[in-house]
Write a structure and sequence with these properties.
With 377 residues, this protein is of the alpha+beta class. Helix content is 26%, strand content 28%. The protein has two domains: 195 residues; 102 residues, no CATH class. The protein is globular, with a radius of gyration of 22 Å. This is AAA family ATPase.
Length: 377
């Protein structure tokens, strides 16, 4: 489980250190930095997939994503411009430090692409020289050898490549592989489409689906997988919580799957194409959160969007059920959903505010937060 998330130099997040729990709720008014925090987690996931630089370029590149303010109140910038993201837990920690292109890269046509300047993987909750397992500076990637020293793994890594994406030797870098696999198991769900042409409304070829697709296109297959190898009692309970007396089934004709919702008083079930937007959206969250193989982290961005207020208690119950099986981060601006989730004994609530253009944690001072060090370039 992730216990610490740190972000520095990203949009309005000049320096933010968070303690994450089994269920963490990130809330705050519009413009407080919630979306930036959500995206910073996605950037960490992109590092493991090898796509962090292209992801940042799609956001507008270095001019759009890097912190442009001063280093402190009344202090002009002296250190290099950088965007840093990292996490730590009881097992391993990882950080990536990105900055502006230099040398030959500065003359490239890809002027919006930042470079990965530095990466570190370590054991334990805090970065220490003695527990560092992998270190990357520029093109050189080194790993801890059997003698305790560092030996070169790659000497010519490009600035747009992540060490996690290339350090794939199970003999020399088993811990790095463990970090990469952990991050790659993270799942991110944003606003689902529910319009008439939404993928979730279409009949689809069904195959066992352990994780709902980002666009919800395999909704019926994901629900049927939960019914067969997941916790079917949770599935039935979550449907009944939201729509009392209703039953969810998946129809299959010639291998093509469709959702069928049996509601009290109706003579036939309603198919996915017939469901209301709110009903379909709730079922998408059910499929996302009750996955039989949930991975190590599920991040939900504003799951309340498009749901009627009466469904929020059922949504909160769904999220808390899921948090019994995996770590959950919920980003929301809805006070009711936040309060419902905060009533759970194990919920960690983080309230963000923006002051002088900088995102901060409400009630927290600059030096508060979990132990963390970025090291130096």
């Amino acid at each position: 489980m992730i216990s610490t998330l740190s972000v520095a130099g990203y949009r309005s997040l000049r320096e933010l250190r968070l303690v994450l729990g089994r269920l963490t709720v990130v809330t705050g008014p519009n413009g407080s930095g919630k979306s930036s925090l959500y995206r910073s987690l996605r950037l960490l996931a992109d590092c493991a997939q090898g796509g962090v630089v292209s992801s940042l370029a799609r956001e507008g590149g270095s001019p759009s994503v890097l912190w442009a303010g001063p280093e402190g109140r009344g202090v002009r910038r002296r250190s290099p411009v950088s965007l840093r993201v990292g996490y730590a837990g009881d097992g391993f920690g990882y950080l990536a430090d990105l900055g502006l292109p230099g040398g030959d890269a500065a003359r490239s046509a890809f002027t919006l692409d930042p470079e990965i300047k530095r990466e570190l993987v370590w054991a334990g909750p805090v970065l220490r020289p003695a527990t560092t397992l992998l270190q990357r500076r520029g093109p050189l990637v080194q790993v801890r050898g059997d003698d305790g020293g560092f030996e070169a793994l790659v000497a010519d890594l490009e600035g747009f490549e992540s060490a996690l994406a290339v350090a794939g030797d199970p003999v020399r870098t088993p811990e790095v592989l463990a970090v990469r696999d952990q991050i790659r198991s993270w799942r991110f769900y944003d606003t689902f489409r529910t319009d008439p042409g939404a993928p979730a409304r279409a009949v689809q070829i069904g195959t066992r689906t352990l994780a709902l697709a980002d666009d919800g296109s395999d909704l019926a297959a994901a629900l049927q997988t939960i019914a067969e190898i997941g916790v079917v009692d949770d599935l039935d309970a979550c449907v009944d919580d939201a729509f009392p007396g209703s039953r969810l089934r998946v129809s299959s004709e010639g291998g093509r799957f469709d959702v069928a919702v049996h509601q009290p008083g109706l003579l036939r079930p309603l198919r996915a194409a017939e469901l209301s937007d709110g009903t379909l959206r709730y079922l998408l969250w059910v499929a996302a959160l009750l996955s039989p193989r949930p991975g190590e982290l599920i991040v939900c961005n504003e799951p309340e969007t498009g749901l009627h207020r009466s469904l929020l208690p059922a949504l909160a119950g769904l999220i808390t059920r899921a948090a019994l099986r995996t770590q959950i981060v919920v980003v929301t601006h809805d006070a009711q959903l936040s309060d419902l989730l905060e009533d759970e004994a194990d919920t960690t609530t983080i309230r963000l505010v923006k002051r002088e253009g900088e995102t901060r944690i409400l009630g927290s001072e600059a030096l508060d937060g979990p132990p963390w060090t970025w090291g130096t370039r």
